[in-house]
What we know:
Strands 1-4-13-6-7-8-9-15 form an 8-stranded antiparallel beta sheet. A 7-stranded antiparallel beta sheet has the order 2-3-14-5-10-11-12. The chain is 16% helix and 35% strand. The protein is α+β, with helices and mostly antiparallel strands. It has 4 helices and 15 strands. It has helices spanning 2-22, 25-28, 228-231, 236-249, and strands spanning 29-33, 38-41, 46-51, 57-61, 68-75, 84-91, 99-105, 114-120, 129-131, 142-148, 152-157, 160-166, 182-189, 209-219, 250-253.
Amino acid sequence: MASKVLPFALLVACSLLAIASAGSFFQDFDITWGAGRGKILNNGQLLSLTLDKTSGSGFQSKKEYLFGKIDMQIKLVQGNSAGTVTAYYLSSQGPTHDEIDFEFLGNLSGDPYTLHTNVFTQGKGNREMQFHLWFDPTKDFHTYSILWNPRHVIFMVDNIPIRDFKNLESRGIAFPKKQAMRIYSSLWNADDWATRGGLIKTDWSKAPFTASYRNFNAKTSATSPGGDWFFQELDSTSQERMRWVQKNFMIYNYCNDVKRFPQGIPAECSVA
């Protein structure tokens, strides 16, 4: 009998340890604006942001991070989300800030979300890449990850890389590696530009709009010193997956926007 009880006890203990190591939104984040429209629920295991005609809402991490593997599961606004933006990003502060962006631009019911990505270095952005997703991001939670180490900023969706911003400082291109950043997220109204360049406005009869978050995890130098993430780069299989995404689901790449850069495309675009 004891031989059967012990494995079950170990299983329970391991499960409790896994839950504890995941932390909670109470421990890791502060709701920073929205007058009660942002809520932490389920004993800290779920966070929701809400937008109505009066206000959106947002949160930020208690800690700052200098490099890390940041994972968050998000379920986006369902139904007619046109005009809304759900932003999830890392950022430092000040005029020469660094920033690593995921932004989810809502759309009419049945039309795909646009996933907007950008990288700012020393206050300079203009490095937008946009994608449609290969699934409906409103039906269930999906994992959106930023892998940030001294050599790469890699954007991932359900562990599939979609973009790799490489450290090309040797070529005079700035890379975010000196400024610690907090995690931020917000749900807000941007119907002046978010959907079809602002042609489609937010339908407030569908409000309130809600985005949900769970299973935040951060591997950092503090929690996982010397971990694989610190040296990670894309192997041949991951590169092939990224090429598949970019071939089939990328809808905008600043490196191809010759009209936008009449003096020549940014230097990093010419590096294979």
